[in-house]
Structure formats: structure tokens, C-alpha cells
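User: Please write out a complete single-protein record containing the residue sequence and its fold in C-alpha cell form, without commentary.

AI:
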Amino acid sequence: MLGWTAALLLSAGTLAHAQNAPSKVGAEQCKICHEDRWNQFQVSPHAGTRKSTGAGAGSAVDCESCHGPGSEHVAAGGDSTLPGFAMIRDFGKVPAAEANATCITCHQGGEHMHWAQSDHARRDVTCVSCHSIHSAKSHGGKALLATASTSELCLRCHVDKQVTMARTAHMPMREGGMTCVDCHNPHGTATNHQLRAANTNELCLSCHSDKRGPFLWEHAPVRENCLNCHEAHGSNNPNVLAGRTPFLCQRCHIATRHPSTLYDLPDLQSNRLFNRGCNNCHSQIHGSNHPSGKFFLR
């Protein structure tokens, strides 16, 4: 146990620290210098909401809810050389973990429950890298995005996907039929690639339900993973296939009753010349329920 002298000194030090700690001054004080930001906040989704967790839970969200108590910043009077000027939290300068911790104070659970394990968090991506809190560019502004659309935002970093989606067969993002977040949760999931499903097949089949089955005759690579045959973001082959038929099929079927090369049997017997694509005959390639559909002909 502490002696009474040590305890007295500790109490005095705690009291002195509390007396010198920054305190809240109210958003009206912020408006004096930052009127443009203050006006933008008034039409923000944050305006009028209340903190759901953490210190001050239930209190209205204002400037100091995110930037911290501003008494020392205000006392500096705009003089950036004074120590107190920098006491306000600047999200462009603090470490990513500290910046994100401020947002997570309220944004917990739901879409954000796996943020700490997400690919973005592990790479020190901050919330303000994607969200523009004071001046949202997204239509409607609900998500406070830093760009006009979700896909445009994602493609700023994921430039390799921008190339694949420019191919002839692609996800309908360019036409506005879907966005990246239809398949991925940027705030993290319990699955690989931040998918909004337990695995790739479950995600694909949530839209392509006609391929779900169950089928009497199952095609093993289809049941295993849609990406065995398809490219997820885009391809220069029909139906976003990973290769053209019959070459795609012959990655696995290299020793079946159909010759694999032009040199095994006379040319006309080769499926690279006769009937060209395997699925011209094997039309039910994702699976068949026909009693005679063992080879996915029906």
C-alpha cells in the first residue's frame, strides 16, 4: 500500500493534471475560424446524431466529439507555434490506429464488426482515406464518400481491377448495374477477400441462383469454385471465362474420348475444329437433372 505522503502527492498530481487538461468549448467556438467546415457539418449525417458508446454516450455529436476538447487550441488564437494549437486531433497527421479508433467509438457492430481483422485495417488504411467527413462527394452523401461513387473510390487503389473491368466481358459496374460493395464489405468480414458470403460460390449463387442446384449430375469443378472457370472481375472471353473453350475445358480433360490436340487423330475428329466449343454439345455444364445427363448434354 502507498504511504499517506505518497498518496497525498499522487492525489495532488492527479488534481493538477485534471485542472490543466483540455476542456470542451463548444462547436460555436469552432465556427469562428472554421465556418466553412461548420456549415458543411450542419448538413452531414452526423449532425443531430448522438454518440452510442464510449465517453459521453448519449451526447450530441459535434466537432469536439471527433477532434477532442478544444480549449487549448482556441486559447492559441490561431498561432500554430504555440504548443496548445496542436492539441486538437488532426486526422491527417495522427497514426492510422488512433484516427480509426475515434470513428470506431460509435461505428461498432454490423458492417464494422470485423474492421480490426480487415485487409484495410492491417494495411493502415484510415477511415478518412475513403470517407470525406466534411465535404462528401458521393451522391446523397449518406456514406460521406471521398468520390462520386463506391467503385470509383475502390479503383483509386485497386488499379489492377480497373484494367480487368475494362475487358470485353466484365461485371456491370461500368453501366452502374452493381458496385464493388455488392460483393465485398470494405469494413471487413470473417472470410477471404472481404466477401459478403462464406465463400466464392455462395456469393456468386446469391445472384446466379439457376446454377445453384441441387443437380442429379454434378460437375466437380463447378461445385468446388466458380473461379475454376470464370474470372471474377472481367475477361476477354465470353461469359467472363478464364479461357476460351475448348482450351479451358482441356485444362482438366486432357485424356478424355475427345482428342486433346490436332495431332492425336485426323483433324476433323478434333473438337478444336469440329463443333469448336465443348458447351455446344455439353450445354448443361453447370449440372444436369436429366436422367441421361451424365455428360451434361441435357
Observations:
- The beta strands are 169-170, 217-218, 234-235, 287-288.
- Residues 94 and 100 are 10 Å apart (CA to CA).
